[in-house]
Specification:
Layout: H1 8-20, H2 24-38, H3 53-57, H4 63-75, H5 79-89, H6 91-105, H7 110-118, H8 124-137, H9 143-148
Helix pairs in contact: 4-8, 5-8, 6-8
């Protein structure tokens, strides 16, 4: 079946979805930043690690609260909204972000990363969305730079 064979109303719905859903990440970013601002939390780019945990502890005191906001936001998304976020960000770009985070930040092996995909309740989509959000709002996203130096 070609696109010419599709009924006009279906084509209009597809175009509507494509044209009107391309700001999902921008809207999500604004909503999360608004929640963070309303609670007077400070965003930190640093991820605590064993070497500098004491040094960053005071600076990162809002990290747990910001993580709660982000995880709650993700929990309240529908599957369709989650799919739309990943689709807008780019599926391969999302997988690459997931892979880089696990290899660079967590130091996971290739086998460890593959096991994430084998575990049915791991929540790959939610993990990718959390990484997208962190990257978009500049939260705990210095792991690429700090671990490649």
């Amino acid at each position: 079946m070609s696109i010419n064979d599709l009924p006009t109303d279906i084509i209009i719905n597809i175009c509507h979805e494509v044209l009107h859903n391309n700001n999902i990440i921008k809207k999500m970013k604004e909503e999360i930043l608004d929640m963070i601002t309303k609670n007077n939390f400070t965003i930190s780019k640093n991820i605590l690690n064993e070497e500098n945990e004491e040094e960053d502890c005071v600076e990162d005191c809002d990290c747990d609260n910001i993580n709660i906001i982000i995880l709650s936001y993700i929990k309240n998304l529908t599957e369709k909204q989650k799919d739309n976020i990943i689709c807008e960000y780019g599926m391969m770009k999302g997988f690459q972000l997931f892979y880089d985070y696990h290899r660079i930040c967590l130091g996971d092996s290739y086998q460890d990363i593959c096991e994430c995909f084998e575990i049915s309740d791991y929540g790959i989509n939610d993990s990718i969305i959390q990484l997208i959000i962190n990257d978009e709002i500049g939260f705990e996203n210095n792991w690429r730079k700090s671990n490649q130096e």
